[in-house]
Amino acid sequence: MKGRKGKDTPDMADDSISRRRMLQLAAAAAVVVGANPRGLGQLSWGAQVDAPSSNGLRTHVTRPYDAETDVAVFREWLTPNEKFFVRSHFGPPAPDAIDPARWRLSVSGLVDTPLDLTLSDLNRLEQVTITAVLQCSGNGRANQRPRVPGVQWERGAVGNARWTGVRLRDVLEQAGLDRSKAKHVQLEGADRPVSTKTPLFFRSIPMVKALHPATLVVYRMNDEPLPVLHGGPLRLVTPGWMADSWTKWLAAIRVQGHEAEGYYMQTAYRHPTAPVESGASVSGGDMVPVEEMIVKSLIVTPGEGAEVSAGPVTIAGVAWTGEARVTRVEVSMDDGRHWKPATLLGNDVPYAWRRWEYRWDAAASGPVTLLCRATDSRGDVQPERSSWNPGGFLWNGWDRVSVTVAA
Fold first, then answer.
1. What is the DSSP code string of 65-116?
2. By mean pLDDT, which of 31-35, 42-46, 98-102 is the weakest?
3. pTM of the full predicted structure?
């Protein structure tokens, strides 16, 4: 993590390239259905703002656009913006609502001075850049048995990017917290459902996470203006946590003494506090919000179904965890009976993923299933299979890739 504020700090409100691109991307949006109660422009749903064939993403839903990344892209440490998975419940806001020159971020609730900040206001705070993994809470849901409703994400609803913005802590301190009462921060985006009967998507994070120096309000992704599909012009970044708290199109922050109410906080995005039988019904009192990521690894190369030559074969991939560090990755070529240590590559960067590789001497010809598992600094080990849960969240079972060794 680094902080800076210098002459080259971009003026977001004057970033004509950013604005033009946002408006172009959003131009395909939207079924207009009503007035926005917060004055953020008209409600809209559901833009497919990029043609799936143009970016190589695997589309699950076209409206709103939900698509995952081809795992082969993870050969690169940073996942390119245009190849980064896309997920939202309602799609981007209407074009007029995402004009950076008009964007406002309100701060209210248990604060001394409510704020209504422009992007230029935020730009006066210290700029911070971190690299962090962003993963959909349902990544790997397709592996759950029995099947769980929802988008059947497989392996690619995850990516690693460089995020630039300002600390949420600095924004809150500018408003002046009532520290005796402030316990949670509610985050609300400007996206809206097609029907007024559909609940709004908003969630909250505990104050300790809100004040963490790595929790950011970001406006750049991989050194480019934050794309509309990824929450531009503003998005919350909570490194080490699942994507449900990384609020896109961030427009309102409310400091309060309790967790956010509403469907997406009190019903959805919750998981059992203890393992449950597959397919079991779980009462709300036995569920807690999905928050931190758990240790996980993927095999990137060779790819699924590949044919490899006998002899030395490089098995490579990535591994990540939440607020701990990846300490070990192992591979198996005999269905988990024996494990071999892989070599961790590159620097150990907090919240980023770690690349790894293993040189395998592929001797016998025929089909082979390659497995990998990771361990983190807490001693947590990626299990053979994740515990089933009604939302299909937090899948981190061993990754499996089938290959054939040529005769």
1. EEEE--GGGGGSSSPPGGGS-B--SS-PPPGGGG-GGG--EEEEESBSS-EE
2. 31-35
3. 0.87
